[in-house]
Specification:
Number of helices: 3
Structural class: alpha+beta
Strand order of the largest sheet: 1-2
Strand content: 15-25%
Number of strands: 2
Mean pLDDT: 80
Radius of gyration: 23 Å
């Protein structure tokens, strides 16, 4: 009887682990925007309406935009 309980418990545990692995993850939206263009009130309303997480990354110049798109750190001019 002990072996049967152990097998049932193992099967239950495996099923729970599989169900947890299949859990739906929250979608994410990454924005690359000019300063001030991602108003927090708008972002919050968008997240609630579309059930996603918005992450904004800000840029200050076109050179910075190109650098971020390429994945590089922009050079600073002095």
């Amino acid at each position: 009887m002990n072996c049967r309980r152990l097998m049932s418990l193992s099967l239950l545990l495996a099923t729970l682990m599989l169900a947890a692995a299949c859990a739906k993850k929250t979608p994410a939206l990454n924005l690359l925007v000019w300063e001030g263009y991602a108003d927090p009130a708008f972002v919050k309303a968008f997240e609630e309406q579309h059930h996603c997480k918005v992450s904004a990354s800000y840029m200050g110049s076109s050179d910075e935009l190109v650098a971020k798109l390429r994945g590089a750190v922009p050079e600073t001019t002095t």
